[in-house]
Amino acid sequence: MKSLINFSLIAIFFSSFLNSQVLNIEELKTAPRGLARDYYIYRYINEKKPSKKEIAQLKPYVYRYAGKIKSKIEDKIGAQKQVTLDCRGINANNLLEANATCQNAIVTIKYLQTLSIEKRKELADKFKNVSPSLANFIIGFDMPDPVLYYINTNDTASYLKYYNASRDKEKFLNEHNLTSKFVAKISSNRQFKALINDIVINRKYNEFRHNLIRISSSDLIDSDVAFLLGLNAILFHRDEDALRFFSSAAKNATAASKRDNANFWVYLITKDKKLLKTIAKSSDINIYSLYAREFSGGGKIKIIVPNPKIDTLLNYDYTDPLAWQRVKNSISKMDSAELLKYGARFFTKSTIGEYSYIMEKAHNYKLHFYPTPFMEDIGSDDTKRKALILALARQESRFVPSAVSTSYALGMMQFMPFLANHIGKKELKIEGFDQDDMFKPSVAYKFANRHLDYLEKYLSNPVFIAYAYNGGIGFTKRMLQKGDLFNKNSAYKKYEPFLSMELVPYAESRNYAKKVLSNYIIYLAILNSSTKISQFFENLMIPGESEKFR
């Protein structure tokens, strides 16, 4: 791998924010809007036990009112009153004058059942020019098979109304074969995409899935749905049909990584080595482009490993989440030229994560930065362990020490507060430990080593370790012991382990592990320990070598 990588090495007042303090109400109100402030509002409510009045004062300052902070606030002061739609006084006689929201809310299957057939025909006629979609819904209601009518008229909205109202979803899907044009239209619908993802990944509703194979791929525009239908065809051993869908997915993919993924499946089916050369030239660095370079002798990978000489940025506390939040809020409004100028100030050893984050954004993510920050604190002399920690950190936080996620995972290694407190107080018994200590790189690396020591008792392949780091070791254990994935006796042996990697049930972990593995290969090379990515794919299928759960 060393010969395949061209490293573009760019030589281009630490304040004590963290003293286990919880901000007061006034500090929270003046803090920058974003996830960092949400985290501290959550801490304040959780630890200071404020009054209902104080919580109510803070509620308008929450940036993302969802998840645990929503639950915490509503547990204390009651659920937020939902704004109800006021459609009082509207009936069949004045429905035409109502707004579109009320019209759609009122004209349901149950409502139409209360009207006479004459009244429904009259209503449909009135809506023909005002709301053709609603008129079609009413017309379809009186057809011998309303759902078939909606499919034939490409009325996806009405189809979904009937689907959502059905008690037996599988029976509903089996009774109505979808046309190619209908699937092409509905494939961009989020609910339909979620349905297809669920039934393919979890291999549900066999009859309906089998019927999907006959869908024409030429009409499909949505790359994600086409890819899922390709996997579905593989699961039914219909390789030629899978080829159609994967080719469509590659053609319509807007992201290079998704195009590489689809093209790789075309290669797996056809064994056309020209495709490997195409994938090897990708602008994206992913497991497929790395694999393609290994077997096609493709071009060198262009990456940037920043190497600043200045230690730290004056008047910027890199361990302060609110300081980073201010930066994020500022750069969200900048164009590329402004980002380049502004980001240059972060070219220091302590802010190389922030620098890389801003520079990638400035270059529209076409340049790939692989920083190696705080190596003096990484806590291991083992090259593989160092590469793994760097691979995880790049994916978790982009090496921003003060990163806070939507679930309030903290720091470079994104530890959840409950786990950080357990390790810090119960396992390592660190005196005076506070969860905000996770914003210190030395602590983040220390905890990562501790957690990886635990995971590596059971897992050795970086892909499985990544699944466990992201989704939990319990999730990984259950998945492997179920026996249908990463099985050397699989009926789809010629497509393994790539098929199993696509069928990991938790989508976030599925994609996360792919990115961590590509990061791992790059960091091994940076640390002068180049390794072929193919060996990790082969190892996944061997119980006892890659993990100890089977």
From TrEMBL:
BP-aspect Gene Ontology terms: peptidoglycan metabolic process
GO cellular component: membrane
InterPro entries on file: Lysozyme-like_dom_sf, Transglyc_AS, Transglycosylase_SLT_dom_1
Alphabetized GO MF terms: peptidoglycan lytic transglycosylase activity
SUPFAM superfamilies: Lysozyme-like
Residue ranges of every copy of the Transglycosylase SLT domain listed in the record: 384-482
Alphabetized Gene3D superfamilies for the sequence: 1.10.530.10
Family: Belongs to the transglycosylase Slt family.
Name used for this protein in its record: Lytic transglycosylase domain-containing protein
